[in-house]
Amino acid sequence: MTMAATAKRRNRIYPPLLALLLSAALAVIGGCRGETPPAESGASAQPSASPAAEQKYTFGIIYPMMHAFYETITHSAEEAAAAAGVRLVVKAPGEANLEQQIRMMETLIVQRVDGIAIDPIDADALAPLIDKAVGSGIPVICFESDSPGSKRLAYVGGNNLEAGRKLGEQLNERLKGKGMILVETGMPRMHSLNERLEGLLAYLNESTDIQVLEVRYHEGNEARALQDLEEMLDAHPHFDAFVGLEAVSGSASILVWKAKGLSRYAFTIGLSPQHREGLRNGQLTAVLSQQEEEWGRRIVETLEAASQGRPLPSYADRGIEVFLSPN
Question: b or e along 109-129 (b: 16 or more beta carbons within 10 Å of the residue's beta carbon)?
Answer without folding.
Answer: beeebbbbbbbbbbbeebbeb
